[in-house]
Specification:
CATH class of the largest domain: Mainly Beta
CATH superfamily of the largest domain: Translation factors
Number of domains: 3
Order of helices and strands: EEEHEHEEEEHEEEEHH
Number of helices: 5
CATH architecture of the largest domain: Beta Barrel
Largest sheet: 6 strands, antiparallel, barrel
Shape: extended
Radius of gyration: 34 Å
Distance between the termini: 97 Å
Length: about 270
């Protein structure tokens, strides 16, 4: 399925083990086309996902209209399948296809780092920092022999463009799924920045037999009674504020009496 990387966080599973997970908004996806062996030579399912583009070209809109989809699904991917009977045109796919304890492969485009040197790109140690070495601390050093072979081998590790390539991380554990928000929490890191498009496929590794996923709802419910006992504090604050209010009334009364005495004194003087 196709999704969007949200970010990373920490979760505690049922055994109390902390797991660094990546939250992925997976779907909902729509089946936009079916590839058959008789017509196309292979069997595959094309699914679509709403990307960042809000406006599509007319051919793209016409392709989606044939599938009965009016949503602007700007991201389309094909997945090879063995059986097409469980898929129909316009079918909606959600997170319920994945369960905690299973393993998946996640593909995405890595972060682009621009033009990088050998130290950053390949982890080179660099040149010596003493003995008259002045400007070659991060230099690559020699890149080939002299007479033999007399050239630079293909694939030599050198400075160049880093990142912005398609990467796949295999056999990542599904820790938790949130069906209401179409979220899936996968243990480990996923290539690409937050908000990038990723593709999730079932992994080759078999699912865990005994896996106790985190239960966030129970934790929230257990914390609710403690929050219910807190409203008793405002009553104490109101009670404590009553003497201040009476004190203000007394001050206001004293001021009134002083004002009355002053008026009486003025009348006597008159």
């Amino acid at each position: 399925m196709i999704g969007r990387k949200v970010g990373m966080m920490r979760l505690y599973d049922g055994g109390g083990r902390v797991r660094a997970v990546t939250a992925i908004e997976l779907g909902p996806n729509r089946v936009t086309q079916l590839r058959t062996g008789e017509r196309d030579g292979y069997q595959a399912v094309q699914i679509g996902y709403r990307g960042k583009r809000k406006r599509l070209t007319r051919p793209a809109r016409g392709h989606l209209r044939q599938a009965g989809v009016e949503e602007p699904l700007s991201v389309l991917r094909e997945f090879r399948v063995d059986d097409l009977s469980e898929f129909t045109i316009g079918q909606e796919l959600s997170v319920d296809r994945f369960t905690p304890g299973a393993f998946v492969d996640v593909s995405g485009t890595s972060k682009g780092r621009g033009f990088a040197g050998g130290v950053k790109r390949w982890g080179f140690r660099g040149g010596p920092k003493t003995h008259g070495q002045s400007d070659k601390h991060r230099g690559p050093g020699s890149i080939g022999a002299g007479t033999t072979p007399g050239r630079v081998w293909k694939g030599q590790k050198m400075a160049g463009h880093m990142g912005a390539r398609s990467k796949t991380v295999r056999d990542l554990l599904i820790v938790l799924t949130d069906l209401s928000r179409n979220l899936i929490f996968i243990q480990g890191s996923v290539p690409g920045p937050n908000g990038s498009i990723v593709v999730v496929r079932p992994g080759r590794r078999s699912a865990l037999d005994e896996f106790d996923p985190p239960v966030i709802e129970d934790a929230l419910l257990s914390a609710a009674p403690e929050q219910a006992d807190e409203p008793a504090e405002p009553e104490e604050n109101d009670a404590a504020s009553e003497p201040e209010a009476t004190a203000e009334d007394d001050d206001d009364g004293v001021g009134a009496e002083e004002g009355a005495e002053g008026d009486a004194g003025d009348e006597s003087e008159a």
